[in-house]
Write a structure and sequence with these properties.
mainly alpha, Adenine-specific Methyltransferase, domain 2, two-stranded parallel ribbon, 7 helices
């Protein structure tokens, strides 16, 4: 998800003083979340699932987090989510599905995801810290 992570500091350093910031190619929001908040901010991306995810985290983050209360990280659930038609889901379920796939897919690949996990280090989808992570994004939006 996103492609400006490594360039974030460079890009932010090039942004002139402003009151309105428009993130035209939002992606994961690396630049938006890395800079100081502006008076007005606009997030946009061509990926409707990504836009829906941020909209749900902004407006319905408690319902989003509640969906993860009884969830486990598993290849079976990953496969079920990949095989679920997002058109059959409401916006919250769609955001939950999107985030789960992005965070558990090998390399974070969304277009052709395959289940990935780490035997060492922190898991990409850490259910112990998801409340802190999502609440931080919610508060920034």
């Amino acid at each position: 998800m996103g492609g400006k992570r490594r360039l974030r500091k460079t890009i932010i350093g090039m942004i002139p003083e402003h009151t309105c910031y428009v993130e035209v190619f939002g992606g994961a929001g690396w630049v938006l979340f890395g800079k100081e908040p502006s008076k007005a901010e606009v997030y946009n991306d061509i990926d409707g699932d990504l836009v829906n995810f941020f909209r749900i985290v902004k407006n319905c983050h408690r319902a989003f987090l509640q969906a993860y209360d009884l969830m486990l990280v598993s290849r079976k659930l990953f496969t079920d989510f990949v095989n679920t038609d997002p058109e059959d889901l409401d916006e919250i379920q769609r955001a939950v599905r999107f985030f789960y796939i992005i965070k558990t897919a090998f390399g974070g690949k969304w277009d052709e995801p395959s289940f990935g996990y780490s035997r060492t280090g922190q898991p990409r989808l850490n259910l112990d810290t998801i409340y802190e992570t999502i609440s931080g994004v919610h508060n920034r939006l």
